[in-house]
Amino acid sequence: MFRVPFSSLKYSIVSLLSLALLGSCQKARPEGNAAPVLAKALAPEAPSFPVPAWFTADSARSFRQSLDSVFTYMHKHRGFNGTVLVSKFDKVQYKGSFGYADFRTKDTLNTHTAFQLASVSKQFTAMAIMMLQEEGKLQYDDSVQQYIPDFPYHGITIRQLLTHRSGLSNYTYFSDELWPDRNKPIYNDDVLQLMAVHKPQVYYPPNNRFDYSNTGYFLLASIAERASGMPFSQLLQQRIFKPLHMGDTFTFSDSLAARKDKVATGHTGGRRQRHPDYLDTVLGDKGMYSSVEDLYKWDQALYTEKLVKHETLQEAFTGTRQKRMRDVDYGFGWRIKQVANGDTVVFHAGLWHGYATYILRNPNDHSALILLSNVPNGSYRYLDELEAFLYPEKPAEPQPVVASSATK
Question: What is the 3-state secondary structure (H, E, C) of the chain?
Answer without folding.
Answer: CCCCCHHHCCCCHHHHHCCCCCCCCCCCCCCCCCHHHHHHHHCCCCCCCCCCCCCCHHHHHHHHHHHHHHHHHHHHHHCCCEEEEEEECCEEEEEEEECEEECCCCEECCCCCEEECHHHHHHHHHHHHHHHHHCCCCCCCCEHHHCCCCCCCCCCEHHHHHCCCCCCCCHHHHHHHHCCCCCCCCCHHHHHHHHHHHCCCCCCCCCCCCCCCHHHHHHHHHHHHHHHCCCHHHHHHHHHHCCCCCCCCEEHHHCHHHHHHHECCCECCCCCECCCCHHHHCCCCCCEEECHHHHHHHHHHCCCCCCCCHHHHHHHCCCCCCCCECCEEECCCCEEEECCCCCEEEEEEEEECCEEEEEEEECCCCEEEEEEECCCCCHHHHHHHHHHHHCCCCCCCCCCCCCCHHHC
